[in-house]
Amino acid sequence: MSMTPSDVKATLSFSDGSPNMDLPIYKGSIGPDVIDIRKLYAQTGKFTYDPGFLSTASCNSTITYIDGDVGELLYRGYPIEQLATNCDFLETCYLLLNGELPNAGQKEEFVESVTNHTMVNEQMQFFLRGFRRDAHPMAVMTGLVGALSAFYHDSTDINNPEHRKIAAIRLIAKMPTLVAMAYKYTIGQPYVYPKNDLSYTENFMRMMFATPCEDYKPNEVLVRAMDRIFILHADHEQNASTSTVRLCGSSGTNPFAAIAAGVACLWGPAHGGANEAALNMLEEIQKNGGVEKIGDFIAQVKDKNSGVKLMGFGHRVYKNYDPRAKLMRETCHEVLNELGLQNDPMFKLAMALEKIALEDEYFVSRKLYPNVDFYSGIVQRAIGIPVPLFTAIFALARTVGWIAQLNEMIGDPEYKIGRPRQLFVGAEKRDVKPMAQR
Ligand code: CMC
Question: What is d(CA 4, CA 334) in angstroms, rounded to the nearest whole number?
């Protein structure tokens, strides 16, 4: 990793006559430069204030690059469009973890090691049994992934690169098994064990949809669509859940526990929960009159007091069309054609909503475009994934990004425990009064 010092320096001056401070600037390989404020507090006694990290780079990274104005996403330099078209998910995982795409031999070895770790400890199903059958899959996944830390003691020395590698393989391999188990538990069907002569994604779909009385015949178009969902969600630089994983892991905690923290963060509707929320929103509009009622719905979204948002629209970084949404839109057409669902009312509704939102001044002026979750929900629903499971599938896919980012952080000699500071605006020092005087 290299941060190249810039010839330009920033100077911070104060209107009260305090001395100026020169701040070094570093250049990345692409993207905005950063102003290094690490010595700011020591030299000025002041912190910076940036809730929501609107202007703060929390780390340097070589993994994923996003240009939100252009609508560009690169994994290790490769455009997402090329990866989604020419590579499969496990090649993408290899790339994110190792920095380069695998050659044929490396791919074979990687696929084999992931495949060899697909089973979970048999005790996991007893653990799962403790949950209510109607528990939300993300509640279950947070528990199950956290529980992995109790099962795999031999890969948890985060200072050992070999351990970090094994933990990464285990997580990538076991997530599909856990998501499918969580689903089967909800619907009261027996768990389907992994079958290692299938591809990663075929295996996942079989564990989801096969039963002991009927096997699952993989459909090439649907498997490819699911694989693409995995590729598109694999990493997205320092988003909320990834930053959570880094912060959690910065204490030196067990890697499975750090990933469980990421799962918990992803659940929220402003982040990974948006695919579920977007589909629930479409179902709600459909129930209340469908395409005819879009106008009323948009009016509600624009009314700041309503608290209604157009789910699946807007992004902190993309101020242009999300490149993942473009690819997902394409996949959406393929899947609906394959299943003969071109006239699916939900898809028609989504298209009509998209058209209106892309033309409406409210959305145009705020640069609110559809994000990946707007379409991924429709695709997953068509494939037969139940709506509450959408975010768990996002977690499955994002696991590789989380672990790649965690391992990058731990391997960085500059890494420190994450410890933000605050602007304190609460009560000043005061004395506790006896109960009778309070
Ligand atoms: N519907 C209506 N108005 C919106 C929306 C939306 N989906 N998103 C942003 N706005 C408005 C917002 O009210 C604000 O308006 P104003 O300037 O008049 O106050 C303006 O646009 C800027 O929004 P913001 O809240 O300052 O933007 P943010 O960067 O803090 O929020 C976001 C980004 C993704 C949380 C937000 O756009 C949102 O809640 N979208 C819906 C949920 C969603 O689809 N999330 C998935 C993100 S992609 C998958 C992932 O990475 O997890």
Answer: 45
For the chain, the first-to-last Cα distance in angstroms comes to: 57
- Counting ligand 1 atoms within 8 A of each CB, the residue from 326, 362, 368 with the most, and so the one to mutate, is 368
Beta 64-67 vs 72-75: how paired, if at all?
Answer: antiparallel
Contact 360, 301 (CB under 8 A): no
165 three-class SS: helix
Question: Rounded CA gap, 278 and 313, in Å?
Answer: 9
Given the residues 227, 271, 315, 322, select the one marked as catalytic.
315
Cα–Cα distance, 8 to 11 (Å, whole number): 10
Residue type, 83: L
Helix (H, G, I), strand (E, B) or coil at 190: coil
CB count in 10 Å sphere of residue 128: 20
CA distance 22 to 36: 10
Ligand 1 probe mutation, 69, 265, 313, most atoms within 8 A of CB: 313
Which helix (H) or strand (E) is 22 found in, with range? Answer: strand 21-27
DSSP structure class, residue 319? S
Residue of 346, 320, 321, 323 lying closest to 335 (CA atoms): 346
Arithmetic mean of pLDDT, 250-269:
95
In the reported structure, the alpha carbon of residue 368 is separated from the centroid of ligand 1 by a whole-number distance in angstroms of 8
44-94 pLDDT per residue, tens: 999 999 999 999 999 999 999 999 999 999 999 999 999 999 999 999 999
Q: Which residues of 363-380 are buried (b: 16+ CB within 10 A; e: fewer)?
A: beeeebbbbbbbbbbbbb
The tens digit of pLDDT for each residue in 319-359 reads: 888 999 999 999 999 999 999 988 888 888 888 888 888 89
- Tokens representing residue 174 in the block: 């076991």
Distance 200 CA to ligand 1 centre (A): 34
The SS3 call for residue 105 is helix
* DSSP conformation class of 280: H
